[in-house]
Every structure is written in structure tokens, then in C-alpha cells.
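Hi everyone,

Forwarding the result from last night's run.
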Amino acid sequence: MQTMKDRLPPEPQFGEALPISPSPSVLDFLARRRSVSAASLRAPAPDAEQLRDLLRLATRVPDHGKLNPWRFIVLEGEAKARFAGGLEAIAATSPDAERRKAALFKLKIPPMAVVVVSHPVEGSIPEWEQRLSSAAVCNTLLIAALAMGFGANWITDWYAYDEKATALLGLTGDERVSGFVYLGTPAEPPQERVRPDVQALVSRWG
């Protein structure tokens, strides 16, 4: 897990040259990257300084037009418990109340959740591209947290789409939840899952 002596290098200055060089250690990491079940995430979660680092890394994603069409909502401690309680009240009014209540374990167990909110900006950049950029933020946050030594899981559930739930979260206008990224320390190592046959998914045009 990242310590003070392992802090990130300072942010590059605008216009600074950033040479591309091979990084075998990154390739090794990606070859074995595995999300951690939300149910197995325990304290500690990233501290304030580590979270700042993670969010800085998460925003280094493709962003056509440099619009920053996303924002973060951090849920932890008593505030996260209150939010979960509000979701339980919303779930109780649903025809499938028990299923919705049961799904909240993914939110309740991990010590921290970072909600990545897609926040499209009016202009010439297609909304779809802005939504994709927000998804890239989710994935980069997930990878950065794992690389820092934490467990992480990027999910959505009913409360990412329910209008009452997103209103409780504070979303407005065209905002949508791109993902809840759950963070903590794994109670046990995750196991490898079935992976796709990549060659079966590849075609060449022409």
C-alpha cells in the first residue's frame, strides 16, 4: 500500500514534455488486474492524502475538448450510513423492495465509495463522448486504487438509476451516475474469473 515515501511525482506543468517509454511493470500489473468484491472490502480505506492522489490520477483520462465533464461525490463514515438509510426508505416503496434492500450490502460494507458523476457540458463535443470520458474516469480510479494496494470495485445498481436515489445523492439536470467505485482493504485475495477469448472478438476491416 502506498506510503508517504511512495508519493506520486508532482503534476507536470502545462506544456511540459512527457516522453513515452516502456513500462513492463505496468503491463505485468494489467495482466493480473482483478477487481475485489465489494463484500470483502474492509477498513482502512484511502486516507485524505491518498484519495487526493487517486482522484488526481483518475482525471488524467481522454477528455475531448478539455471539458472535465464529470465530478466526484465521496461517501464514507456516518454520511455513507445516512445515505444508505435514505436508500432503504426509497427501496421500501418499490414493488421489489426486498431485492433492492438486499442489494445495498455493496454500499454498506466497504468503508468508502466514490461516486463518479457524468456531468455533460453544452457545446460541440457529443454527449456520448463526454459520457465515455466519465467511464474512463471510473476505470482509471479503479486501476489506480488497485495499484496503490487497495481493493476496489466499480459497480452500478438500482440506486445508480432510480430518480429518487439520484436526487438524494444530489444529481441535477443531465447528470448521471457513471459508477460507484468502492474502496477499502481486501479481506482476502480475489480469485481469477473467466476471461474472454480475445481472438474471437477481433476482426479486420477490408
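The chain has one domain: 36-187.

Cheers,
N.
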